[in-house]
Design brief:
Length: 451
Amino acid sequence: MTGSTESGTTPAACCDDSADPAAAARPGARPDGLWTVDEHLADVLAVVGPLPAIELQLLDAQGCRLAEDVVAEGDLPPFDNSSMDGYALRTPDTVGASDAYPSVLTVVGDIAAGAGELPAVGPGQAARIMTGAPVPPGAGAVAPVEWTDGGTGTGRPADAMAAAVEGEEVRVLRPVAEAAHIRRRGSDVAAGSRVLTAGTRLGPAQLGLLAAIGRATATVRPRPRVVVLSTGSELVQPGEPVGPGQISESNSFTLTAAARDAGAIAYRVGGVPDDAARLRAVLEDQLGRADLIVTSGGVSVGAYDVVKEVFAEYGGVDFRRLRMQPGKPQGFGRIGPGPGVPLLALPGNPVSAYISFELFVRPAIRTMLGAEDVHRPVVRAHCPVALRSPAGRRQFLRGRYTASDGLVEPVGGAESHLVGALARADCLITVPEDVTSLPAGSEVDVVLLGG
């Protein structure tokens, strides 16, 4: 892929900013032309922020984060209701009830879910009631139908919930405790209570709660719209014949999936050839629907890398070299009219692009979402094999982490084209810039990539 000149076989001119005449002129450029990972990340996060809050219908808000606290206007449940099919009754009437000596009560009516008018229950009386139906006045508990003779007074099976019969009686076969099988008003949510806080991600349960308290919409930070495109004339789409010097394009699939995993609405744009006019046209077409643009390839100083050429026309995009491996060449800034759309330009090698996404793009997306958990979790683990790392570079090795024994092992080598090893990895092993070797058994930082 274009922009892949960062491996160990790359000529020095492709990896050293001293070969780039514009390096010294770039704002904030370091004397050696290299930036740390933390400095670059800080610059990226400085140009993005939570998206403006909007009001969405509940299902449209799925996956978004609340922009404000939600307070219940009423009680939930809004009235005392039955948790069982059975009979609403007065508990003193069931004292001492048994199969041999049942309490015989007169059935004064039926109460279905949604009922309006309710029969009053007096001494020696009961009302047939369905699950979710309001508890009638005078009743202090509900006897499940299984605790009765079914309401016929003739010993029919307990599940015989037939229509009410004039003069019907029900035999209750055991004592019923006060408030048994009644869901009290406000027992789930009390009126005036805060049910969800700002920043909460709206999943199925949260959306159900909002609907239950009568909310049809939610004010949220929308999911950012991320446009992902790969550049390089050597790229062909998966499923198409691969000719000499060509490869199947994979970065846009990896990065689009990663953007969705981070919470974004991601749009994939197929491989764009190394043609300035074509790249310019694609960008102009995508600017209108993007909150963030992510490109891969074309960030080195290769003769055919047109990404810099096109972005230079917009201004505001800075290309730099970082003290990291893989992923040394990076670019970011804004393009388009007005304040512009944030853009992150990643290297073209597949592993470099993915690791760069995890370190820089994912935190940007999470910031735009208004999430608190911007970064992947980091744990400490022991590595049973010795590690080597280039001087002055923070290295990110692919690894497999076992939480049960606190061990992590590298997967594959350090080369930035090993997508097979990347697919088997579930974490990144970090070796600091000032460390060139670690003996077997050393403790290292491990970035957990999640499922």
